[in-house]
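Journal club side-thread
Mid-discussion, someone asked how the predicted structure for our own chain would compare to the paper's figures. Pasting it here so we can look after the session.
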Amino acid sequence: MSSAPLRIALLSYRGNPQCGGQGIYINYLSRELAALGHTVDVWSGQPYPEVNGGVRLCEVPSLDLWNEAQFFRTPTLRELRDPINVYEWMTTITGAFPEPRTFTWRFVREFKKLPPVQRYDVLHDNQALGSGLSALRSEVPIVTTIHHPITVDRRIALKAAKGIRKRLGLRRWYTFIPMQIRVARQLDRIITVSDKARLDIAEEFEIPQSRIRVVPCGVDQNIFRPLPDVQRKPDRIITTVSSNTPLKGLSYLLEASAELRRERPSLTLTVIGRNGHKDTESRLRALNLNGAVRFTGWVTTEQIVNAYAESSVAVVASLYEGFGLPAAEAMACQVPLVSTSAGALPEVVGTDGAAGILVQPGKSESLARPIRELLDAPERRQAMGVAGRQRVLSLFTWRRAAERTVEIYREAIEGMRASRC
């Protein structure tokens, strides 16, 4: 198999560097691929990811209708001259989410304009799985990353939804799922980030496990690190909620915090992220947590690291995770961890209790008990923090992820060559 440098197009229908894992994945993977000597172009819709290390950002503008500054704005007449924009606007105002589809349509339009000498050896889609990719299957090998099956998000959201109107709205929003499943079945190779996600994708999307490769995410261990000069604040716990959805289990952590505050009135909870759910405010009042819970909003990575350094215990309350970057980042910062055993979190945290305590998901009392135990045991917290960082250093690096990803690119390239012979 050839070892020549590759021309790689890394596709992401959105890549917000401040929210969720997609922007983080794109930034670090592209940087490490470039460091290995490959040419990497990131093609992305808004919000655009950060790229560096010689990576080129190719902007694929959408109508950006989910931008909070201009939420569901009305496009200009000039914008509506583009039929893709018309489709995106009409579909969005009816409650659906068309971005994965329309991003790939726009990318194909730009790809077709490229002269042959500027074409790519491989396309790597970051879970857009839009129907436009089908038009390129015969022209270039296509690899996709599926972080976890989005069908799980839909199932959990529908279970938590109150009222038929809310459930109907969710069903409409998730109408992109059949397209993603259909496209995933067509592509050359699928990458996912954990063994658990591999099993779930195979089952939910009905794809043979033999077509799915596992490449765990990495953590930037130079940024996510302990800060010895920052003093930990007693009775402060911390969690990361990139999107305030039922999947993240925040409601159970709030209940656990209320229980713990009856014993420790000084206990506070820092939530890295914003309070984007109307029900959360009423929930805080009902639990008498006003003033005890602080949502940071969007903050820099260094501010996140500093918040970890000030905290005594980190908590991941998720009901499902395909990987669990917040768990790995907390461990890299040497913060003792309480995590649910949902999804792939046991693969990240480990099951021996050294780097973190695993508990049953969906139960506030399961969270409260080990948090209480750790707050009462400073020596155990210190030992757990050290073990957590060592686990991340040994298992989760972006360089290792990039090297394994290149191997999969070459598999896909060789597979296409063989099919043409």
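Post-session note: The domain at 7-218+398-420 is CATH 3.40.50.2000 (Rossmann fold).
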